[in-house]
Amino acid sequence: MKFIQNVDKERFDAFAIQSPLNHYSKTSPFITFKQKEFYKGDLLGVEDDNGNLIATALMLHKKTHVPYAQFSYIQYGFNLDYENKALLTFFLKELRNYAKKCGSFFLRIDPNITRIEHEKDGKIKEGGFNHEFVTQAFQDCGYTHLGYNYGYSGNWMSRFTYRLDLNQDWKKILKGIKRCSQYTNKNEQRCVKVHKATIDELNVLVMGQEDLSHKLGFEPYGIDYFTRLWKCYEPYVHYYVVTTNFHQAKCNLQQIIQADEKRLLEMKDEKKKDPILKSISAMKKEIVEIEEKGYDKDEEIPLGAKFIIMQGENVWNVNMYTIKTLMNFRAAFALHRFAIEDVYNQGAKTYDFEGISGSLDPKDEYYGQQDFKKSFGGDFLEFLGEFDAVLDEKKYHTWFKADHLYRRIRRKLRYIMNKK
Q1: Do the Cβ atoms of 44 and 57 come closer than 8 Å?
Q2: Which of 152, 204, 223, 273 could pair with 305 as two cysteines, CB 3.0-4.6 Å apart?
Q3: DSSP state, 322?
Q4: Are the beta carbons of 124 and 118 closer than 8 angstroms?
């Protein structure tokens, strides 16, 4: 085997995109996208004795102020056959040596390799697979494992996700989506529609993000961020916007009420009338809400947007934000439902929801988000976590303490400012 540097972009991406482990951050456009944060990136790989590319890794380099030095980072790890332990060990050692050669005081890798198998509800599957031998391989090659932490416990990348298998019959996929028919019908009645959008409509994504940032207290990305992301990954970008016409939705509900009231007059069984009467009452309240909250306008109103990247057969939900309005206008469901069918028809085999907390506690503040993603029938995945190859102990510990202090202060300040 031979460790190689400066792999040709087309060769690098062709190998990465067909890899089962690939992520869009493991292909060459990521270097350009991250230039503001990481000043340099390298395309690295391994060739076998016949000159065939058998492994790739995208290594980024970043300057630090405390200490004044540099570290290296491989987001979501490498693309290779990790069951090939000789290849895994060889590449781990070479990546460590390369980072040291570049002058970095540590190298971080957080591979998107699954740890142990889980049931769809997140519980550990008895007798399922176990890939902790990869953790051991990292440690044997001089890397420190930072632990199997909670999903949002300071990890640079989420350690848990839900991933929907699209390599099955479409009817089976729909059947696996909780309340799919019910929510689809509700959205149709309320004129909730999704369309494939253009780069000129990125403001909808920004608007939805700002709405959420005020609620959760995080710093939102600007239009420049999403524009740069689009242009870097343009061949792979799929973007969707969801809208409604509240006035038309109100008219639809009024028509349904009239039809139901007419049906009630023809019914003789009083017990069968109860659910219809409850439905009519709920729709009347909804009409009042539309009017009282100033939504009753005869025009298309954006409710949110979704930005995804599809490379080869794999899809990742990069960003999705919706604007909170009324409960039965299910914008987030509509976006996922539309996108899943769209990419399925284009040959996608996986649909990654890109991050959940991993907590099975219903009291967890992010449990609702996780439960919503689970409702689409995907598989609960847990990754191995973060590994640091410490190349200069003194600089590393200085940086580690300073970084934790900086991030803690930054979170508090952002929370205060965005809440205001």
Answers
A1: yes
A2: 204
A3: E
A4: yes
